[in-house]
Structure formats: structure tokens, C-alpha cells
Amino acid sequence: MSEQDAILDRVAELAPPPEVLLSREVWWRDHQSWLKEHGYLLRPRYAPDWVPSWKGTDKYPMDCEDNVASLGGRVLDATRVSDGTMVLLKKTSVSDHPHEIEIGKYFSSEPLASDPRNHCVRLDEVLDVPDDPDLKVLVMPLLRPLDDPRFQTVGEAVEFLRQIFEGLQFMHEHAVVHRDCMGLNIMMDPRPLFPKMFHPRDRHMNREWTGRAKYYSRTKRPTKYLFIDFGISKRYSTQDLPILEPPHWGGDRTVPEYQNSQEPRDPFPVDVYYIGNMIREYFFQRFRNLEFMKPLVDDMVQDEPSKRPTIREVSVRFDSVRQKLSNWKLRSRLKELDEDMFTAFFRSTGHCIRMAYYVTTRHPAIPTPKP
């Protein structure tokens, strides 16, 4: 037996069998009945009397939906009983994240909730956990990572950037800093692309776990992008601005002004840096034909925060750049840096067919969702 095979065997011995809940799942099982009383149904795996569906059959566990464990202990999918809508449940500690609920309710209340520039995830409900007064369960829409499925055209990427600049400007105009707006905390509303949704644990499977989830492109079914996770966000009074705050780390640890310094800083330029660095990591390091964005992004990630444009200035400059892009450029395929010749040929051929269809059916080159 090779060393690699021995390691794999050892891992298999340590891994719990699929019929055993992981430690991070136990809390959800223990609160399943309480959540059901409030109108939210968890998957069968989390029922107190759960019996694995493959037991007593000739099915393999991997072929069964209830074999799949949750990814993390803080969040879990659920179905709202009243209308069958898939939602996300998130546990949050009020003492650890004192502003998350306040900011979520603020942007989810009228008139801000109906403002088309609002790109903050909607907070539908806050549940008080009965056996822990510090713990709340937030109910929100079930979203999907911003780049899954992948962007197909330059125009699709341009629309994503427009919405993100617009959304951050909206937050800043209302004196809210996100303080963690990296790529993982920007997601998309999957409903236009996935009208029948998908399985929350394996996004490539359909909701019924009977096959692949079918979806449309962003060009055919434009979608909206949303900021999530306001756990370390903060809202200020406009009278207090400008403000200086001690460094507060989010997931992106590359903020220049936070390196080797505890000096209070203006948190608003930090948000601008986060977005600029997200563009560098998610787009510049993956795709080759977004060169028109480089001068603006270079300014957004300057080491000296006072030299960065405000998010309002970013939006103005971006609009100017966008207006100069031709339809041909916008409809061009977003080319990945690591494509080999065969992959490039295959994707380009399919792209030409799709673009001919989109032009014929008058789908815009920049797929903007309706308000």
C-alpha cells in the first residue's frame, strides 16, 4: 500500500459515517421543532427522529439527499412552510455582532427596501432563540456565489460592477460602512437564473436531488447582486462624519493602512479598497479582457487612503468608462487566463451561437434587471 493510500484509509477511519450528524449540525437538529413552530422546515436530515433514507434499501448513501451534511454551523437552509420558498437561517450573537440586526432591519425597511439602488440582502425575520438570550436566528433569502455560474460576457461583468458600485454608494450615502465587502460577502439572487432553484448543499444538483440544476445565463435572465454579512458593519450619524476608527479586520487582510499600525483611520476608504481588491482577485487574475477597468481599480487600491476616490467618484468614473464600450466589446466572451487552445475554441464556438441568438432576440449587451 502506498503512503497516499494509507493516509486516505486513515482519513476514512476518522470520518464519521454519513448517518452520524456532525457536531456543527447537532444544534440545528435540537432546534428543528422550534423552527418548525415558527414556520421554517429543515431538511429531513435534521429531524429529531431522522432515519437515513438509504437504510434498508440497496441505495448508496451518496445517491441520497439526506446523506449531505451542512457546510457550516452558523448557517443552514430551510423551507418557509407558508409559501415553499427556500431561505437561509443564520445564527448570530448579539454581543459579538451588536450592529448586524440593526443594519439589516434598517435597509430592509421602507422606503430604503424599495430603492433600486439598495443592494443589501433583505432581512425577513429575526427569531429569538428560547434557550440562549444572546443568540438570534436571522431569516434571509437563499443566495448563490457571485460567480457561479461563471460570467460569460464582458457585458455581464460590467453589469455586476455597476451594481456593486451602486450598492456600496447607497450604503455610504446612508452613513453605513460594510467593513468586510470582499468577494465572499457579495452574492447574487439566483431566482432569475434558477427558477426552480437548486439543492442548497450541492448547488449543481436540482432541489429534488434527481439530476443537475438547470439554469439560464445572466444575459437571458438578468439578476441582482447583493451585499451580505453585516456582522462587523457599522452605521454612523451623518453629523459625526468624517469619522476615525481603530483598524477592524475583515476577511481581506491586505488593507495597506492596517498593516503594522493601530492608528485610527477613516473606514469609508477601506470599503473602496475592499471592492477594488475584490475586482483584482475575482476578475483581473482570471480574465484577460477587462483592461478598461485597470486605471480605476489601481486608484481604488492605492496605499494612501486619501488618494483613493470615494465610492461616488468611482461610480461617476465607471459610468464614463462604460459608455465608451462598444456593443461588440460588451458582447465579447470573457476569456479566462488559463484557457488552453482546445477549451478556447470550444467556448468561442458556443459563444458565437449564443450571441447570434441574443442579438436576434434583442437581449441587451448589458443585462440590467428590471426594478
The CATH architecture name of the largest domain reads Orthogonal Bundle
Structural class: alpha+beta
Quaternary structure type = single chain
Strand content: 5-15%
Tell me the name of the CATH class of the largest domain: Mainly Alpha
Largest sheet: 5 strands, antiparallel
Radius of gyration: 23 Å
Uncertain residue segments: 8-13
Strands of the biggest beta sheet: in what spatial order?
A: 1-2-3-5-4
Write the topology of this structure.
Layout: H1 3-14, H2 23-30, H3 32-37, E1 40-41, E2 75-80, E3 86-93, H4 100-107, E4 125-128, E5 135-141, E6 144-145, H5 154-173, E7 176-177, E8 186-188, E9 225-227, E10 234-235, H6 267-284, H7 294-300, H8 311-323, H9 327-331, H10 341-360
Antiparallel strand pairs: 1-2, 2-3, 3-5, 4-5, 6-8, 7-10, 8-9
Description:
- The structure is a single chain.
- This protein is of the alpha+beta class and 371 residues long.
- It has two domains: 24-141, Phosphorylase Kinase, domain 1 (2-Layer Sandwich), CATH 3.30.200; 144-360, Transferase(Phosphotransferase), domain 1.
- The chain has helices at 3-14, 23-30, 32-37, 100-107, 154-173, 267-284, 294-300, 311-323, 327-331, 341-360; strands at residues 40-41, 75-80, 86-93, 125-128, 135-141, 144-145, 176-177, 186-188, 225-227, 234-235.
- The strands form three sheets. The protein has a five-stranded antiparallel β-sheet with strand order 1-2-3-5-4. A three-stranded antiparallel β-sheet has the order 6-8-9, covered by helices on one side.
- The radius of gyration is 23 Å and the shape is globular.
